[in-house]
GM24689
Amino acid sequence: MLPYPNDCRKYYVCQKGRAYEQQCPVNLFWSQLTYRCDYKEYSNCNSDIPSTNHDVEVIFTAYPGDCRRFYETRILRCEQNLQWSSVYQRCVAPQYGLSDCQSYPVTLPPEVPFTPLPTYPAVPTVPATVIPYDHMPIASTPPAVTPMESLPLPIDVQSLCNNSPPNAYIPYPGSCKKFIHCGPTATILSCSNSLNWNPAQRACTTSSNGCQSSFN
């Protein structure tokens, strides 16, 4: 707990790094010796040894694990020739032996010397070579491209069976050695080497009556 600057009827309660302002009851004053609101004769609020001056530095820091909360820390400075005492929780005169504070120098990190970047020689500029228009190279004629023969598109045998009766045998377009069985799934079958598909008889025979071995 800390005294409130310039108001003996108030004091601070510090919890988790944050100071909360409190008000003493009527006719009572904060006493830094008894750590409570006491009668004025027991309060050292108006003593010859002041607590702190008005140099206040406020630091805000994040609260771990909670993005809606933060710490507010007030750094106060004792008045001239006074030192902070953790025992009395106030600024006291060091000549009375009341201060238990020990000052120590703060070691600053060493300064890194600045090293300028080395200066590199400038790259000489090479003039561009201008080629006269009369000496410009002539593009060669590209070779003639022979168009390739168009290949037949793959045959969708399932669509052929969709237009045929169930369990039917139909010719395979472009080949007399093959035929299609339209069962639950369209299946491509082949005749033996010496036989061809005969659409009229719906069988593999020596005669390929009505079979077309090439696309129109």
Q: What stands out?
A: The two ends are 105 Å apart (CA to CA).
